[in-house]
Amino acid sequence: MPVYDNMIDALKGLKSRGFTTDFNMAFDNISCAVTGTCLAPSQFEIVEHYRFEADTNPSDSSVLYAIESKDATMKGVLISAYGVYSDAVSDEMIQKLKVHEA
Question: pTM for the whole thing?
Answer without folding.
Answer: 0.83
